[in-house]
Amino acid sequence: MEYPGRHPKLVTEELFDKVQRVLESHSGSGVRHRKHHHYLKGTIWCDRCKQRFMVQRAKGRTGGVYFYFFCGGREDKVCEQPYIPVNAMEAAVEAHYGRVLRLSSAFRSAVRDAVDAAVATSSSLSDDMRAEFERRLTKLDKKEDYFLELAADEDWPKDKLRAKVQALRSELQKIRQQLDQAEAQLEAGREVFYTALSLLERPQDVYLAGSEEVRTVLNRAFFTRLCVDVEEDVPTVTSHELTEPFGVLWATYAHYEAAQAAELGETLERGSEKQTGVALGEHGACDLRVSLSEAVDRALLADGSSTSDMVGPERLELSLART
């Protein structure tokens, strides 16, 4: 049981939560910071052997000290990935932000409309769920009254009846909590998508201007991992795995671009000479709404079970506020 203490608060809840987010940004991802810390540790992986890159300190021939990344597979003698200077690895990730994390303004606008439509659809589903919950509440109330009437009979075992009544009341409380949380979960989902879209307006600029702390948060907000390989002595991010909701957004964006290209090709074939912009086609718009609606339903209406896989708005807001 948690309840407010009687002593005066030492710090505000806002400050406490902010400190926890900062501490979280320094931990996680299975990374140990006892030796050499770098904000890319835990994010970059070798594209050849799929092991983590680690940071090592070395002394130069003239006595200076420098740091470089090396693949963990080298220690196991299963990988020949060359050593990568820290500044070269940082430049590779910076370039990846500008090359990959780009969504057109038209698509971001379409996503906002689709999210609104998805939430509206989910709200109607929530009304159906609410009616079902109300029916269950009524049924449980009647069942509880029945058990209480039995309790008045001296022949019925009191311990068993007490356990049944307690179980009923626990179920009643759970249902009431689900009813209260349904609408809040939908709004939280809308906030997650909206915050993600705001961050995607200028991701590379935010990343380049951010401190190491901000870059740590951004990398973990966008990616579960970045795979790197060296070709002709130049490290390059060859692939990535996105967190949610960015994975949903990019999968939908690929379909969006395909729909645009198909519509543009059809327009050019018809000989149109006044092609100033291409709108999302009928099938593309429908599919966009459906995919995002399904994502919101899956993330928010599954009794909260999948929300832990989504990027919380507070994590994204932290990176925006720091810049």
UniProtKB/TrEMBL annotation:
State whether keyword Coiled coil applies: yes
What residue ranges carry the coiled-coil annotation?
Answer: 158-192
- Show the Pfam families listed in the entry: Zn_ribbon_recom
Q: Does the keyword Coiled coil apply?
A: yes
Keyword tags: Coiled coil, DNA recombination, DNA-binding
The Recombinase zinc beta ribbon domain covers which part of the protein? 40-96
* Identification of the protein by name: Recombinase zinc beta ribbon domain-containing protein
Task: Tell me the organism.
Answer: Amycolatopsis rubida
